[in-house]
Each structure stands twice: as structure tokens, then as C-alpha cells.
Amino acid sequence: MEQDYIKLKEIKPALSGYIREALAMLDPSITPDDRAIHDVRVLMKKSRAVMRLIAGITDNDFFKKEYGAFREVGRIMCSWRDTSVHRKILKEMKKEHPGIISALKSNPVIESFLLKNGPAEEFHGDLRNELETISELLSKSSYRIRFRTMNDIDPVILLKELESSYKITAGRFLISRNTLKSSDLHEFRKRAKDFLYQLWFFRPLNPSVIKALEKKIDVLTQNLGKYNDLVQLINSLDYGNSQISVSSEMDEMILLIRQKQDFYLSKVWSVAYKIFRPGKQLVSLLGYKILTI
Predict the structure, then answer these.
(1) What is the CATH number of the domain that holds 107?
(2) Residue 114 near residue 93, CB atoms below 8 Å
(3) Does the predicted model carry a pTM greater than 0.70?
(4) Among 5, 63, 126, 285, which is 20 to 30 Å from 266 by CA?
(5) pLDDT, tens digit (0-9, with 9 covering 90-100), for 93-126
(6) How do residues 210-230 score in pLDDT, each as one tens digit?
(7) Rounded Cα gap, residues 142 and 155, in angstroms
(8) Range of the domain at 275
(9) 8: how many CB neighbours lie within 10 A of its CB?
């Protein structure tokens, strides 16, 4: 594919848009539902990915302030999201294996997740304060970015930053594939998400090919995310800290969870290998030949 001139998508309008959308979804006077929590967390991941993309071509103080703000919003919302996801997983398991979940209904952790119907039941003072904190963080970030000049970003340098992001992700893939540790898989997923959200800015180079690549990485990271959700559920149940079996029902439920984890990982490796295998070059993935950008 050859073009005389290619204009990448602009950084500042996208970043400002992510923050504006997040603020619109989080009214401090109204408890956010599961969809709002999910969407805002995605917007924060996109915002952090943008900051990583421009980290090498912006001053350190600006990077620290904005990246720190987006990370703090994600940290605050993490517990909201985990509760919602744990509840959803357990309800699905209750439909698939009602006997096991019924036998474990006296477990205080499982009982607490199943009894909660959503964030609305938890709309108390602490949650209001957290929403106000998030709103303040994002409003200040939006103001700073509004007066930040980003018109002179060299697209060639951006492309090099994308290549660096790709190499980091490929490295994380190799580590996670060899160790199969949940912590390494989590790091691989985070860096793959960064690369995914950064790719969007480069769509004009080869729209159909890059969109297809984005879709593959999106599915890949979704499966890694489902795997990690199950890791977090097991951790919340405090299972595995003792060599003594708690109960046969709990053991069986954990084994069923492990089977789900195996299923999600089985959908990751083949796709990940094709995209991030050793020796693979970014230019071959994007499928373009640039004359001018």
C-alpha cells in the first residue's frame, strides 16, 4: 500500500474526548451502574495508553500528573468493578452447577457477593466521596490538557513509540507463555491493551488491516481478562493458602473455575503467537509502505 501523505489521528482531541466522556458518565449525585463503571475504566485505560505513547516526547512533569490521575481513577474504581464481576461469575456458576453453589451458600464471601444486586446498594458516603474525587481528578486533568499544545508531535516519532510498545508487549507475551504465571499473564494483558488502544491512532496508515488487527487483539485481551477475573475470584475466596481441604464442594468449584481458565487461555495462545512471536516486525503487521507521514 503506497500513499504520498498520511495523516495520523490527533492525540489531543482523542484524549480530551476520553476525559469528557468519563465525566459525563459519573455524576457524583447518582450511583454508577455496572456499564458505566466498565466504560469509564476502559476510557482510563485508553487515556493511560495515550500517555505511554507520548511519554518519550513530552515533559516528565506533565506525564506524571496525567498518567497518575488516570491511574488513580482506575484504582478507585477497581473494587467497584471486582464486586460486580465476582457476583456475575457466581450467578452464572449457580445456573450451571446449582448443587455446588447451594452447598456453599453459608460461605460468607460467596453469600456477600450473591446477596448484592449492584452498586446501588452500596451508595453510601464513601462512594460519594470517591465519585467526587474522581470528578475532581478528571476535571483538573481536562483543564491542563486544554491548555497543552500538542500540534507539533512528530508522527515519525510516534511510530517509533508504537514500535517500542509492540516490542514490550511481545516481550511480555514470551514471558507469560513460558511461565504461565497469573501475574505475568496480567502484565501481558495490560501491555497488549496499551498497544491496542495506541493502534487506533495509526488506522489511517492501512485502515482495513489495522482494524482487523485491533479486533484480534481485542478478543485476545478479553479472554485474558476473563482468565484474570477468575484469578481474582479465587483470591477473594482465600483458597490455596492452606494445604487442608476446606470442603469437597469448594474444591470442586475451584476445579470448575480452573477449567474455565484453561478454556480462556486456549483461545489466547495461537492468536498471540501470530501477532507477537519472536522476530515478528511491526511493519509486517500493519501492512504498509510509508512515503510520508
Answers:
(1) 1.40.20.10
(2) no
(3) yes
(4) 285
(5) 989 999 988 888 888 888 888 775 554 445 556 8
(6) 999 999 999 999 999 999 999
(7) 23
(8) 2-290
(9) 17
